[in-house]
Amino acid sequence: MATLIDIENRPALRHPEKQKRPDSPIQRKPEWIRVKAPVSKGYAETREIVKSKGLVTVCEEAACPNIGECWDKKHATMMILGEICTRACAFCNVRTGLPGAVDTDEPRRVAEAVAEMGLNHVVITSVDRDDLEDGGAQHFVDVIEAIRAASPGTTIEILTPDFLRKPAWALDKVIDAGPDVFNHNLETVPRLYLSIRPGARYYHSMRLLERVKERAPHQFTKSGLMVGLGESKEEVMQVMDDMRSAGIDFLTIGQYLQPTRKHAPVERFVTPEEFKSYEVLARAKGFLMVSASPLTRSSYHADADFAEMKAAREAKRG
Fold first, then answer.
1. Lower Cβ count inside 10 Å, N or C end of the chain?
2. pLDDT, tens digit, for every residue of 292-303?
3. What is the number of H-type helices and E-type strands within the chain?
4. Residue 245, annotated ligand binder?
5. 10 Å Cβ neighbour count for 187?
6. Would the annotation count 85 as a binding residue?
7. Residue 293 annotated as binding?
8. Would the annotation count 299 as a binding residue?
9. Cα–Cα distance for residue pair 120/138, rounded to 1 Å
10. Burial of 299 (0-12, 13-18, 19+ CB in 10 A)
11. Could you read off the pLDDT of 220-234 as tens digits, one per residue?
């Protein structure tokens, strides 16, 4: 499993498809997004549980800046279906290549880890598996069912791939498994998809989230954006409107951070004041929950945010 310190030193192993790209300078981070190195006892305990179960986390693979804070509280986002992605997004630090066979024992180990950590809320994500007929849908179902059996009191949030060019039943199968929150990130504005997320399609991703609401209106839906990639404020606001038209409940907005010199460069660091402005705008547009800050990531404070989102829905209905 990769560690945080070898990311910059091993780009050839993680991202062979990016080696012909010219280097982009990595800007010095402003004071408001610098974090301390993870050294706490809770962090070490979480790492040991994850390692002992032979699991992969997006926290490590994507070099999340919040890993120290989250793992100290035993909040780890499990990444299923392996650690090699079939896509080559310009922003992502997860390895790219041809994945191996699906590990059919993984659902059991994930469920055991969730129970051992005593999680009230868990986030499950995955790499893209374009090589599989169903894009990994059945494996998501198996993981959800295993967690329900091992830890019935745990609420489950999934962060899925887009199931692009997969049969419609694949997505429906995951929806019908009944996760409490169905998350799929749009990542950026439509204009930047070709350069930032070339393997995906903006309107397909939006339609996926709309489909969740059509099939399971009670399920919370969630999506996220990165900013600092060259988007305009007006473009972000248009995406918010598209999300609300699709019935999305929860919006996350965070600062894009460049993993290596071969990845898309940071165009600018968005200030905390601008993030606050985005939050105010999003809440005015009707989202039940908004998390917008430089360090916001899809699963950051997911347990507390889920509780707040449930309360907001109940208050709205009441």
1. C
2. 999 998 887 888
3. 12, 9
4. no
5. 22
6. yes
7. no
8. yes
9. 24
10. buried
11. 999 999 999 999 999
